[in-house]
Amino acid sequence: MESTIRYIPGRSGRHSVASRLFCAALFALACANSYAVCANGSKTLFSCSTARDKRIEVCESRSMVEYSFGNPQGRAEMVLRVPRTLASSSQWNVAARWNFHALDVPNGDTTYHVFWAGDLQAGTAAQEGGVNVVTGDSVTATVLCVPQSIVQALDSQSLAGN
After folding, report:
1. What is the DSSP letter of 145?
2. What does the alpha-carbon distance between residue 42 and residue 121 come to, in Å, rounded to a whole number?
3. Cα–Cα distance between 121 and 30 in angstroms, integer?
4. Measuring CA to CA, which residue among 97, 102, 114, 33 is closest to residue 71?
5. Domain locations in the chain as residue ranges
6. Could you please report the per-residue DSSP string of 127-141?
7. Which of 45, 92, 127, 152 is least crowded, fewest Cβ atoms below 10 Å from its Cβ?
8. What is the C-alpha separation between 106 and 88, in angstroms, rounded?
9. Does residue 7 have a pLDDT over 90?
10. pLDDT tens string 70-114
11. Can you tell me the distance from the alpha carbon of 138 to that of 43, in angstroms, rounded to the nearest whole number?
């Protein structure tokens, strides 16, 4: 984003300084981090950073699920909002040690399959998560999270689409 704040000769004094400060504040707001974090009234179901410095985030409100992906220092590359009734969650527990939780967010023929798996006895050191992009019956992309960056509440979810 390119912007210029011009000084107009002949305009001096307190009003001019205030005007310039106001313009600078507007410019700073326009350039501020526009990547969404879960809005007030919504809950973070999943959030993490990737090895390529991207952010995966899933938020839930009373009626919607929002999946977003992109640069945390700029605009999200993708934001997908779907009614809560269209998203679905699943879980798999193995001998009370390993847990696997997933949330599917559909978008036409493509589904964003956000997942988390963890060894309950090893804590955050033995967890993984990410997103599989599934188009039709094929996984077209997989993006993994940096394990230490994962924040998840998928294990507390049961969505209507189950």
Report:
1. B
2. 30
3. 45
4. 33
5. 1-32, 43-156
6. EEEEEEEEETTEEEE
7. 92
8. 9
9. no
10. 988 888 899 999 999 999 999 886 666 778 899 999 999 999 999
11. 30
